[in-house]
Amino acid sequence: MFPNDTKVLHLKHAIVFCTVRKFLLTLLSLLAFNIPDVLAQTSLLPFTIQGNWYCIDSAAISVPGRLPGSLHNALISSGIIPDPFVGTNEDSVQWVGRMDWKFISEPFEKPHEGDFEVGEVLTYSEWSLNGVKLGETDNAFRPWEFGVREAIRPTNNILSVVFTAPSKVAESRIKNANHPLPGDAERAVHRAPQFTFGWDWAMTLVDCSVGAMGFKGEDLDFAISQIDVQTDTIEGTTARGFVTFRTESKLENDGLLLRWALSDPLGKMVAAGKFRHEVGEVKIPFKIENALLWWTHDLGEPNLHTLEIVAVGDKGLIAREKQVVGLRTLRLDTSKDKEDSKGAKGAKFQWVLNNVPIFAGGSNVVPADLISNRIRGAEDVALVENAVKANMNTLRIWGGGTYASDEFMNACDKMGVLVWHDFMFACAMYPGDTKFLESVSKETTYQTTRLRHHPSLAMWCGNNEVSEGWERWGWKVGLSELEIGEIEKSYDRIFNELLPSIVSEIDDAPYWESSPMLGRGDSDFVNRGDAHDWGIWHDGYSFDSLWTRVPRFMSEFGFQSFPEKSTFSTVVNYDSILSSTDRTSAELISHEKHSRGFDIIDAYLVKPFGDDLGKLSFDQWTYLTQLLQAKGISDGVRAARLNQDHCSGSLVWQLNDCQPIASWSSIDSHGKWKLLHHELKDAFAPTLLYGVWESVGRGSKLKVGLVANPNPNLNSAIPGTLRVSLVGLDGDVISSNDHAFILTPGTPNWIVLEDVVGKRTDLSSTFVQLSWTDNSCIDKSKCELGASAVVWAIEPKDIKLQKANISVEKLKNQDDGSVLLMIESDVFAKSVQLEANMSGNFEDNGFDLLPGEQRILKFTPHNLATWGPELSSNSQTRNVMTQLFVTARSLSSVL
E-strand spans in 381-449? Predict the structure, then answer.
C-alpha cells in the first residue's frame, strides 16, 4: 500500500483553464486505464517477521512474537504475564518495562532491494541485520530509515532488535539536561506517548513495540510527493488558491510534461493545467467558480476533491500520484474586543470556516489503548462516527498521547469534523539541548508534512498544560533564578521558535503556543484564549459555576464516572463487588487513578442525590456517577452555547478511554456510550432549548434560552413558538401556554416567563416541558430546527418517585444487526438506564418515562474486534457475552 503521507509544499507557474479541460480529462482517463500504475514502485512494502523475544536481564524468559508487534502482547499470549488491565495486575507487570529486551527474527529471504524503514518504535532500540548494525531509534513519533544493502543476503537473514528500558535512559538524559525538568522528568526526556508512564485515567504500561516496518521501493527516476491544495480566498462561490506538490528527478528536462487535474466529489474536473518539467517545490494558482466547499457536517457537506498529478515523457507515463483534498479557508480569529464602558477588554478565540464564524463543539481524544499495536484503524473511524452521532463538529488530539492516525484524519475529512491537534508535549517542562531539539524538529517536520493536506486539520497547538503548569502548579519552587531562566529559554526554543517556524513553513494551519493560554487561577482566563476549567472536579466548584465562568473557548472541562457492568466486569470481579457498599477493595482502587477520585465524586453526589451514600451498592453508586457526570457536563456545554456572543467553543474532557477504568470519558474503552454521551447528543443538537428557574412559588420566573450555531444556510431570524407545559408525574398536562420566540442562529436569545407554576403547585410531583417549533415548518414531525427540554424546580432526591416496574420487550432483529426493543413502566420512571450484557449502544439512554408510555428504540451490537481486541483474542479476560440480555433501572430503585 502506498503510505497516505503525501503532502504539499509550494509552487510556481500559471494555470491553464477551460480550453484544455476536455483534452486533459481524456488524456488522464487513457493514462489511468491503459498505462501500468507506478504507485507500487514508490510505496513502502510492508514486512512482517516472526521471531522470539528474549529478556536480556533474565535469560530464563523467552517467548515467540512478531514485528510489527508488542512485547506485552507476546508476554500475555504466552502466559508469562497476566492481562495488565485485570484486577491488580498492573503492579505485577511493571518489571517488564524496567528490563532490556531483544527480538531475534527467524531466518527470512531477501524481500526487496530498497532501504528498510520502521515507524512508531517504542522507544530506544538498536537494529542489526546479520550482525551488522543498521542504526538506532529514540523517537516514537517519526519513521527511521536504514540502509541494508551491505548487510542483507539472498537467504537466511536474521534481524535483531535490542530495546533499552526508558528508565535506564532517563537517568543519563536527566543528568545531561541543561537544567532541571519540573513536572515529570522521568517521562519528559522521552519522545514517546507520555500517558504510558501513568496518568489519572491510565495505568503505567511502558511497552517495547514496533508499529510499522517495510522495505522502500526502488529509487525512481521521477517522483511526485507532498500533494495538496491551499485555498486562500472564498468570495461568494468562487475559490482561489494554489495547487502544491514536490518533484524529484534524475531525468533530463527535455520533453517532460507535468499535468494536473482537480476533480470534485462527482468526478467532474473543475481545474486543470500543464507545464514543463519543474524540480523541487511547485505552486500553481487556481480559480474555481461554483466551488463545492468542505464544511463541517453541521454547516453543510464535507465535499472532498481529488487532485491528480501526472508526469508524461516521450515514452508515455513516468509517474502519477493523487491525493484527496478539500477546498476551504480556515483561520483563527484572535482579534481584540472593543473596550466596554469600564475599559475592560479581551480577545476572541474563534475559528472562521469559509468566512463563517463557527461554534466548535466536541471533545478531547486520547489513545484508544495502552498497547498501541492493538488499536485498529476501524476503532479510530468508529470514534469519529460516534462523535458525529452526538452532534460534535470538533475533536482535539491531546498532547500526552500520539499523533492522529491516517484513518482518524480521513474519517474526520469525510464526516466533516475539525481537528485541533496538539504536538506531543504535556504537563512537564522539556529539555532544550541541541540533541533534543533536533529530534523534535524531525518529528515535527514529519508530522506536519504527513497531516497538512487534511481539510479537517484546523490548528496545531504546541503543548497541553505546560505553560499552565509552569505558571500555576508550583514548579518554580526551589529553583534558582538562573535555573528558571534556562527552563524558560528551553520552553521558548521549542514552543515559540521551533514548532511555529516549522508549521509556518510547511502548513497553512494556525499555530497556538499552549493550551490553555491562561490557567483558571488567572482572573483573566475567561476573557482571552482558550481555557481548561478544572474549578469543577479539582477545586470542588459547583456545576453552576460553569454558567458564571464562561471563557472565550472551553478546551477542557469534565467529571469522572465509572463504566457500566458489561465493560467493567471484564477487568474486575464484578459479582463480588456488585452488591457491596465497600469501595475500598484493591481491585477498585487500582482502577481509580485519581488520588481523591472516590471522595470527590461522593462530595458532588450529595446535592442531587442526598448524603446517605453509604447504603448504596457499588452497582447503584456507579449508576449515580454516570447520572451526575451526564447532567453536570452537558449543562456546561449548554452554558457555553447559550453564551455564544462571548464563547466560541466547548470541548469536553474526554471522549474515550484506553482501558476499562474510572475516567472523564463519555465513551468507555469498549465503545459503550455512557449516559454523558447521550446527554451530549442533546447539548450539541443543532437547536438548543434550555430552561432554568430564577424563582419558584409566588411570582415564579422561568428563564428560557434558545440558540442554534452559526449557519450560512439559515436566515438571521427565524420566528417560532415556545410551548410551556406543566406536567404531573402521572403524565397529565396541568397547564400549557404558547409564546412567540425568535431563533437567531449564532446568537442566544432569552425569554423570562412569569407564573408558570403557582404557589400551591407541588414541585415534587410536577415538571415543566418546553418545546420550540419553527413557525415556517408545516409538518412539525419533520422540522429540522425543533427542540425540547425538561425543567425541574427541585433536586432528584426530592422528587416523589414511586418504585417503577420497567419492562423491556425484544420486538425483532433488524437487517443491520440491531435489535428493536420496547420499554414501558407502570409509573413515572426517572433517568432510566438500560444495560446490555454485551458491547453495543442503545439509541437512547438515561431518559424519563411516563406511566404507560411505550418507548421503542434500537440496540446495536459492536464488533468486538474493533473496540476490544484484547477480548476477542485473549482468553484470560472474563465475561465476554454473545447473547443479548437487557436490564433497566431508574432512580427510584436507588434513592
Answer: 394-397, 418-422
| Separation between Cα atoms, residue 852 and residue 125, nearest integer Å | 65
CA count, 13 A, side-chain hemisphere, 372:
27
Task: For residues 675 and 551, state if they share a domain.
Answer: yes
Taking CA atoms, 594 is separated from 203, 367, 591, in Å, by: 11, 19, 9
Per DSSP, the residues of 656-703 read --SSSSSBS-SB-TTSPBPHHHHHHHHHTSSEEEEEEEEE-STT-EEE
Do both 369 and 490 map to the same domain?
A: yes
- pLDDT in the model for residue 519: 82
Give the Cα separation of 308 and 327 in Å (integer). 15
User: To 10 degrees, the CA torsion angle through 85, 427, 558, 389?
Assistant: -70
- Tell me the C-alpha distance between 459 and 50, whole Å: 40
Cα(663)–Cα(671) distance, integer angstroms:
14
Residue 449 main-chain phi, psi, to 5 deg? -65, -40
Domain tally, the chain? 5
Q: What angle do CA 746, 748, 754 make, to 5 degrees?
A: 160
Looking at the structure, tell me whether residues 556 and 700 fall in a common domain: no
Q: What span, in angstroms and rounded, lies between the C-alpha atoms of 356 and 793?
A: 38
- Within-domain flag for 760: yes
What's the whole-number average pLDDT of the chain? 91
Phi, psi of 291 (to 5 degrees): -70, 140
pLDDT at 816: 84
Ramachandran sector of residue 840 (left: φ over 0; alpha: ψ -120 to 50; beta: rest): left
Detail the DSSP E strand segments found in 731-805: 733-740, 749-754, 766-774, 787-791
545/414 same-domain check: yes
Q: How many CB atoms lie within 10 A of CB 688?
A: 25
What span, in angstroms and rounded, lies between the C-alpha atoms of 874 and 76? 8
The answer on 812 and 772 residing in a single domain is no
Q: Are 602 and 728 within one domain?
A: no
DSSP labels, 345-363: --B--EEEETTEE--EEEE
What are the start-end ranges of the H helices in 460-596?
466-472, 481-491, 499-506, 545-548, 565-568, 574-577, 586-589
* CATH number of the CATH domain containing 743: 2.60.40.10
Q: Would 20 be classed as within a structural domain?
A: no
Distance CA 657, CA 608 (A): 27
| φ and ψ of 619, to 5 deg | -60, -45
C-alpha span between 309 and 325 (Å, rounded): 13
Which of the listed residues 216, 237, 272 is the one where a domain comes to its end?
Answer: 216
| Closest by Cα among 446, 445, 417, 405 to 326 | 417
Nearest to 739 by CA among 706, 708, 711: 706
CATH number of the domain at 657, please. Answer: 3.20.20.80
- The answer to whether the beta carbons of residues 802 and 818 sit under 8 Å apart is no
pLDDT for the residue numbered 12? 29
- Strands 457-461 and 418-422: what pairing? parallel
In this structure, are 510 and 649 located in the same domain?
Answer: yes
The position carrying cell 484486577 is 87
Q: Which grid coordinates are listed for 568?
A: 467493567
Residue 67 belongs to some domain of the structure: yes
Q: Find the CATH number of the domain harbouring 69.
A: 2.60.120.260
Residue 569 is placed in which grid cell? 466486569
* Predicted local distance difference test score (pLDDT) of residue 570: 92
The answer on pLDDT for 874 being more than 80 is no
Boundaries of domain holding 613: 356-682
- How remote is the C-alpha of 619 from its chain's centroid? 29
Assign 466 to helix, strand or coil: helix
Average pLDDT over residues 711-738: 93
What is the pLDDT at residue 610? 96
In which residue are the cell numbers 521549542 written?
A: 494
